[in-house]
Automatic annotation (TrEMBL):
It catalyses: S-ubiquitinyl-[E2 ubiquitin-conjugating enzyme]-L-cysteine + [acceptor protein]-L-lysine = [E2 ubiquitin-conjugating enzyme]-L-cysteine + N(6)-ubiquitinyl-[acceptor protein]-L-lysine. This is RING-type E3 ubiquitin transferase. PROSITE patterns: PROTEIN_KINASE_ATP, PROTEIN_KINASE_DOM, U_BOX. InterPro entries: Kinase-like_dom_sf (IPR011009), Prot_kinase_dom (IPR000719), Protein_kinase_ATP_BS (IPR017441), Rossmann-like_a/b/a_fold (IPR014729), Ser-Thr/Tyr_kinase_cat_dom (IPR001245), U-box_ubiquitin_ligases (IPR051348), Ubox_domain (IPR003613), Znf_RING/FYVE/PHD (IPR013083). Functions as an E3 ubiquitin ligase. ATP binds at K489. SUPFAM superfamilies: Adenine nucleotide alpha hydrolases-like, Protein kinase-like (PK-like), RING/U-box.
């Protein structure tokens, strides 16, 4: 046999349902009567004893029709044995089963902090359906009890799971029944029944004569459980409480005198007395269940009458009992109905809310469906577009293929044209050689050509910090090209001017040489750039404006610069064909280390692509207002560059040299000053003490140069140079002049073409040029085998000291 706990657990489904549990406490006397009440009232049922005094134990009595005496003895023995076992083995919890075979014990329950909680918990855990327990506390333990007096009983009555049907017993009498129910409706009934207000009382029975009580045989427990009312009292109880019961039963004893009753007083279910031979027989009397036929009064003797009265009394009681029950049920149903109604209302509200939710979800769904439809439509449109673009892609691919083919053919044509171009240039050179005879081989006539890579390296990848100017003909970068400091002018590459034309123009310009014209060192046809010598002291514009805090130019220097510009212009204009500068202004007058001035960009307009009308293209013509002041009004009107235009610009430069003032409105100011004999007021005093007469003469000349009518302007050579020449000489001779030594004119051949400084150790190289020793040695040592000036192959690397030049330099230096 396995664990009894397991056994009970295993049988829970069917057996525990049918088991009558009896809660017994430590008061053995009290517990006995409760236990016997259960044994007597539920014969044939399995009875399980819950020993509820702490710690809580469970005992089970299995079914088996034990004679009450034997049972009594059996139970007492079991308890005692259990207690002994508990003492001996230190058991806290155990299950005891009493049955025909003997007793078994096993632990099933744990200790709780209160007995009543323990009872309720064990009911809940084991789903106990039927429970018998004491109704009174020890101090109230009496048969006269009319309501629940035990704290534990009240607690169990109120708190036990509703499915549990509980009989509360005191001294073998049923005091109160808490109706349990399995189904929901009955649960409601049970909960709604106030446990103590309207108890199903058995005191009526208690008032019946003992014989009569003895004669009341219980209904079969299985059939009486649902009704929850069973009026049973065992003979054992009566024996136990004979004295008390006799007192109570005396008033009705007379009624129960029945000749057929056996001496032990047992009445069978049908009302006929029967004597049972079994020593474990039970006395049972069944109350009239309503099916009994009413007894005829006539012809009845007293005994029959008594029996009838008794039967009627029992019947009446039963009916009253039924009526009470019905009333409880009605009340319970009413309560249930109210609750149902409110639940229904709530459910309706919930339904309404659900409906609204559903409606909302439907609306959302419709919205989403609409959006989905839109997306589908868009998808169709996009698919069409994709299809169209795929067609376009195919078309474009075809076009690209044909364009690539075209490009390849153009490249071929270009390569052919290059070859033709190179042949043409070669022919041109040959022709020039023929035309110029021996002069063609004069060193310096051939301009140097630089690759774009060289230009790029020279300008440090066109580093913005190396940019020194930005003009309408392009940006100017400072650079170090083949160890020479250079200025690189990046001309615009737009327009239709061919490379050949560009190279020719550059070559023509580079051939025009004058000490006061900037030297074109070379070109980079690839990037359409011109490479000039770099002049250390920047432009006249910057020096007049004392940019970077440079000191103002003395009047002697200014007069010399004016004469130098005049000289350069005369030279340009005398060229055949005439080369007008076309854009003369102070920013085009550059100053070398010795403040010798050199014009730059002379004739450069010939290198700029022409616009549609044959003019210089629009972008290159965009003069600023300040620049246009230097422009001949005729030129601004006709866009024709003439020598008179240069005269006009020269007049403006003269005015700036004299006054140092900005060009805008300068002409009017000077005219006004002369007219008001306030000329000295407009003279630039920062230039020193001007010789006033000479200065005023220059001012007159300047105003004449700026005549509107070009024919009225003076001739550069016959008029201006005639006046300027002597002025230049006197300014140089002006011994009192501060820093006059610096103003002297350095013969250009004293200057090293690489370092741009007066040479200290001049050496002649194989190309015939004289260089400063350090410059030419550095050049050759860095692996160069060509001339820095002509780029022609040097025949040898020998360097010969130029003693004659060295002597001339030293003599010149001693003069100052
Ligand atoms: N060879 C050079 N050596 C030193 N500085 C130079 C040289 N060439 C040009 N520059 C500097 O670059 C500046 C810009 O020159 P550029 O001739 O390009 O423009 P601009 O005279 O200011 O205007 P635009 O050409 O539009 O009339 C000059 O003013 C000068 O300061």
């Amino acid at each position: 046999m396995g664990s009894l706990v397991e056994e009970i657990e295993g049988e829970r489904e069917h057996d525990v349902e049918e088991t009558i549990f009896v809660a017994v406490g430590k008061n053995l006397e009290k517990s006995k009567t409760t236990l016997f009440w259960a044994v007597n009232n539920f014969p044939g049922k399995k009875i399980c004893v819950l020993h509820v005094h702490r710690p809580t134990h469970v005992l089970a009595l299995t079914k088996g029709k034990l004679a009450r005496n034997k049972l009594k003895q059996h139970a007492i023995d079991a308890f005692q044995k259990l207690e002994r076992q508990k003492m001996r083995e230190g058991l806290d919890e155990y299950l005891l089963i009493l049955d025909d075979a003997g007793l078994q014990a096993d632990a099933v329950w744990i200790e709780m902090d209160s007995v009543e909680n323990g009872i309720v918990e064990i009911i809940r855990q084991h789903s106990i359906r039927w429970l018998v327990m004491g109704a009174a506390a020890d101090k109230c333990y009496s048969m006269n009890l009319v309501e629940l007096q035990s704290k534990k009983a009240i607690f169990a009555c109120q708190e036990a799971p509703i499915s549990c049907h509980i009989w509360f017993v005191c001294k073998g009498c049923l005091i109160y029944t808490r109706i349990g129910s399995k189904d929901r409706t009955n649960k409601e009934i049970a909960t709604s029944s106030p446990p103590l207000e309207s108890p199903v009382r058995t005191d009526q029975l208690e008032l019946l004569p003992s014989e009569s009580v003895l004669g009341v045989r219980s209904l079969e427990p299985s059939s009486c459980f649902p009704q929850g009312i069973t009026l049973l009292q065992s003979c054992a109880d009566l024996e136990e409480n004979t004295d008390v019961m006799e007192e109570k039963l005396r008033p009705v004893a007379g009624y129960l005198e029945h000749p057929n009753l056996p001496s032990n007083g047992v009445v069978d279910t049908c009302g006929s007395s029967s004597s049972q031979t079994d020593e474990e027989e039970e006395y049972q009397v069944q109350a009239s269940n309503g099916t009994d036929q009413p007894l005829e009064l006539s012809g009845m003797d007293d005994h029959d009458l008594n029996r009838k009265v008794f039967a009627d009394t029992v019947k009446q009681w039963k009916e009253e009992n039924d009526a009470m029950e019905a009333e409880f049920q009605a009340k319970a149903f009413e309560c249930l109905h109210t609750k149902e109604m409110s639940r229904r209302k709530e459910a309706e509200k919930l339904l309404e809310r659900e409906k609204q939710e559903v409606q909302k979800m439907n609306d959302q769904r419709n919205e989403i469906m609409k959006e989905l439809q839109m997306v589908k439509d868009q998808r169709k449109v996009l698919e069409n577009q994709i299809a169209e673009s795929e067609g376009t892609v195919e078309e474009l691919e075809e076009k690209i293929i044909s364009a690539v083919e075209l490009l390849i053919s153009f490249r071929k044509q270009r390569d052919n044209m290059r070859i033709e171009h190179e042949n043409a240039i070669r022919k041109l050179k040959d022709l020039r050689k023929l035309v110029n005879g021996n002069n063609a081989t004069f060193p310096g006539t051939e301009i140097l050509k630089f690759s774009f890579l060289e230009i790029n390296n020279a300008t440090r990848n066109f580093d913005p910090s190396w940019k020194i100017g930005e003009g309408k003909y392009g940006s100017v970068y400072k650079g170090l090209l083949r160890h020479v400091h250079v200025a690189i002018k990046m001309l615009p590459s737009y327009g239709s001017q061919s490379l050949l034309v560009f190279e020719n123009e550059v070559e023509i310009l580079s051939r025009v040489r004058h000490p006061n014209l900037i030297t074109v060192i070379g070109t980079c046809p690839e990037s359409r750039s011109l490479v000039f010598e770099y002049l250390k002291n920047g432009s006249l514009e910057d020096r007049l404006a004392c940019k970077n805090n440079t000191p103002p130019l003395p009047w002697q220097t200014r007069i010399r610069i004016a004469s130098e510009i005049c000289s350069a212009l005369i030279f340009l204009h005398s060229n055949k064909p005439c080369i007008p500068h076309g854009n003369l202004k102070p920013s085009k007058v550059l100053l070398d280390a010795n403040f010798v001035s050199k014009l730059c960009d002379s004739g450069i307009y010939s290198l700029i692509p022409l616009g549609e009308n044959g003019d210089i293209s629009a972008s290159s013509c965009a003069e600023s207002k300040a620049d246009s002041v230097y422009m001949d009004p005729d030129y601004l009107e006709n866009r024709k560059v003439t020598r008179e235009s240069d005269v006009y610009s020269f007049g403006m430069i003269l005015l700036r040299l004299l006054t140092g003032r900005p060009a805008l409105g300068l002409l009017t100011d000077v005219k006004c000053a002369i007219e008001t004999e306030n000329f000295n007021m407009v003279l630039d005093r920062s230039a020193g003490d001007w010789p006033l007469e000479e200065a005023q003469l220059l001012a007159y000349l300047a105003i004449r140069c700026c005549e509107k009518e070009s024919m009225s302007r003076p001739d550069l050579e016959s008029e201006i140079w005639t006046a300027l020449g002597p002025m230049r000489e006197s300014s140089i001779n002006s011994a009192s002049c501060v820093g006059a030594k610096d103003l002297r004119r350095i013969p250009s051949h004293f200057v090293c073409p690489v370092f741009q400084e007066v040479m200290k150790d001049p050496l002649i190289a194989a190309d015939g040029f004289t260089y400063e020793a350090d410059a030419i040695r550095g050049w050759l040592n860095s692996g160069h085998d060509r001339s820095p000036m002509t780029n022609l192959q040097l025949e040898h690397c020998n360097l010969v000291p130029n003693y004659a030049l060295l002597q001339a330099i030293q003599e010149w230096q001693q003069q100052w």
